[in-house]
Amino acid sequence: MRAKLDHPKLLSEVVSIISELVTEVKLKFSEDGLSIVAIDPANVAMVYFKLPKNSFSEYQSGHEILGVNLDNLKAVLRRTKPGSTLIMESHETTIELNILDKIKRSFSLALIEVESEDKDPPKLEFLSQIQISPGDFVDAIEDCLIVSDACTLISTPNSFIIEAQGLNSARAEFTGDEVTIISGNSKSKYSLEYLQKFIKASKLADKIFVNFSSDSPIKLEFKKDSFELSFILAPRVENED
Hints:
The protein is 15% helix and 46% strand. By secondary structure, the chain is an alpha+beta fold.
């Protein structure tokens, strides 16, 4: 495998976000491009990332799966600067990362065995689909973090609400004037600890799609033409006394 990225900042940002969920991943290189599928140790959240072949200025690969430590990969990718070029090459026991700017800097990372199963993102159906601006979604989640560790999403054909309640409460309500709503009536609660990690991807996206149904997993899709990035999170289930 040999792949050249003229703008590696995106990959660096995504790897940094994924590293908050898992410590190691399988980098899957295929004829279509690079992809990552990872499930957090608690089996609560899944992340899917795809960087298509046309995002690379040079790309040669069959089907290769390379296990890497994310902290090590993140540290190397952070050494890239605006204007840097990244070249990735696979070898028998290592992946070589060359950063080209004023000089050529080379790093070699040992490949590791990653125990996670080879899973594709599940095919889920959702009653509610909301298209919202990244800034509005981030603001609503951060409002909820002030008062609780979980938030409830409520959607009707005409409104979308993100709220949290503890001793205090927070609530953001949107109508079809601010967001695009395709929805029946849905209500579900999710962990803000995870959502706080996911929304770090908002700076990479032009728009966010929030997909959920009552008491079901949520799928957040961070959309841009040059990549695919999505997160799936299980609902928060309240224990009954």
